[in-house]
Amino acid sequence: MAELSPVCKVCGTPLSGIRAIPPRVLRGVRRYPKNPNMCNICSLKAIKGEIAEITVLFADIRGFTELTTVLGPMRTKELLDEYFRTVSDILFSEDALVDHFIGDAVMAFFNQPIQHEDHPARAVASAREILHAVTHLNEGWNLPEPVGVGIGITTGFAMVGTVGSSDPKDYTVIGDVVNIAARLQGQAAAGEILVTHDVYEKVTPAFPHAPQRILELKGVKKPVTAHSLH
Known about the structure:
Layout: H1 21-27, E1 31-32, E2 35-39, H2 40-45, E3 50-62, H3 64-71, H4 73-93, E4 97-102, E5 105-110, H5 119-141, E6 148-161, E7 172-174, H6 176-187, E8 193-196, H7 197-203, E9 212-215, E10 224-229
Parallel strand pairs: 6-8
Antiparallel strand pairs: 1-2, 3-5, 3-6, 4-5, 6-7, 8-10, 9-10
Helix pairs in contact: 3-4, 4-5
């Protein structure tokens, strides 16, 4: 379990301990499920929508679909639950907002509402930790074939807020950065992190001479320069 902040990282309201009791009782303050390092009150303030710089991460399990027929639905659900909990804890530790679970994929974004200048580096650090965690999960799962994860990361500006709703559960991002990150994830092999050049520029010292690929991505007008990290 990730070590969560004792206070909301946006407004500073106490979220754990004795000091958290008054705001919890009087104002209904609690942790926001999509990022428990912030409070639900701040999530309500964030729903209005704005253009913001973010980094988007998509991570998808490779080889899991084939295993479902072998494992059965109940065992498959148990493993997916464990995987999603593990990945969420990693992302929360870097202050990402876990947007959606889509089948066996995870979408998250960084720098909203909790802001950090090094958000691309945080996304890459999360991705590397996810790959490391999956190795340990495979050891415990003892499956006929170990599963792998492919990850795509991009950074840029997007609309951040809710769409067609005032429910903070629908807080999400819309823009090309989302589509590109999803398409990069689709191109990534098991154990590979594909990042756009803008992301790579922020982490080059940690990954010198990372292989470069020019990719034609569905729904993206121009070829995308990507770098492969491991």
